Amino acid sequence: MKKFFITTVFALGTLTAFAQEEATAVEENATEAVAQDDFSEVAAEELPEAVTAAVSKNYPTASIDKAYVNEAKQYKLEVSLEDGTAGTLYADENGNWIEM
Question: In the record, which residues are listed under signal peptide (predicted)?
Fold first, then answer.
């Protein structure tokens, strides 16, 4: 019985580790898909309403300094906040955030 319990613990531990590695690989592939696409600069006025609404909703003090788009209709936004901090956000054409 003791051997069965130890074997079960090792089996579950191995499966958990494999699942974590698989999830990390999927996230890295998604990040690479965005990072590999070339972005072209566009005017902030040309951004879809969904993207500007997402910025206004989630970052009410942010202003969009520069905007870029790639062929997959993913948007790279360089924004700055009123407190002086700046950053880059990525969104799809529907205003959904893309994790980088």
Answer: 1-19
Q: Can you tell me the mean pLDDT for 76-91?
A: 95
- pLDDT of 3 > 70? The answer is no
> What does the alpha-carbon distance between residue 37 and residue 54 come to, in Å, rounded to a whole number?
22
pTM above 0.70, yes or no: no
Q: What is the DSSP string of 33-81?
A: HHHHSPPEEE-GGGS-HHHHHHHHHH-TT-EEEEEEE-TT-EEEEEEE-
8 A C-beta contact, residue 23 and residue 63: no
Give me 24's structure tokens.
Answer: 């990390």
Copy the structure tokens of residue 65.
């300094």
How does the average pLDDT of the chain come out, rounded? 78
Structure tokens at 75: 């948007």
